[in-house]
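WARN retry 2 of 3 for item q-0093 after timeout on previous attempt; input resubmitted unchanged.
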Amino acid sequence: GSAGEVLWETPTPWEGWRLERVGPLLVVSAPDGRALAYDARGFLQLQSDAESGTTQLFQGRDGRPRKLVARGEHLTCVDFAGRVDWRSVGETKFSPIAASASGAACMQARSLTWFPSAGA
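OK item q-0093 returned
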């Protein structure tokens, strides 16, 4: 197709709040943390349920999307099916957070915390 031409279009069950590229997938997120992951042809590949707390989407070492979720003093790394890769409980709130396949970084008050190898 030519530049500016729509290649594909697909409806979503909610108005998109955040759109991110996670590896080869496009992920549409809702404000409550629900997420849908589409491939480059517009086919739904993965979906996840709502998450409370701060969420960071990233590509795990296996190439699949993961979520790093911070809820107060609790930090959890989960896949889109909700299976827990790992979790940590801190002394103070985890915020802000950032993640990639190589690891997760979080602030706890005035301390920067690093968790190696985030995601499976």
